[in-house]
Amino acid sequence: MAAANAKDHPWIKNASNLHRGDDAAHMLQRHNDIVDSLQAFCEADDLKKLALEVIAYQTPPGKFEELRILFEKMDVDDSGTISMAEFKKGMMLHPEVPQERVEQMFNDMDINHQGEVGYTEYLAAMQSASKQSNSSLMGAFNTLDADKDGYITKKDLDNALDHQINNEVLDKMLAHADAQGRINFETFKRLVLTGAKKTGQSPNQLVGPKK
Question: pTM of the entire structure?
Answer without folding.
Answer: 0.73
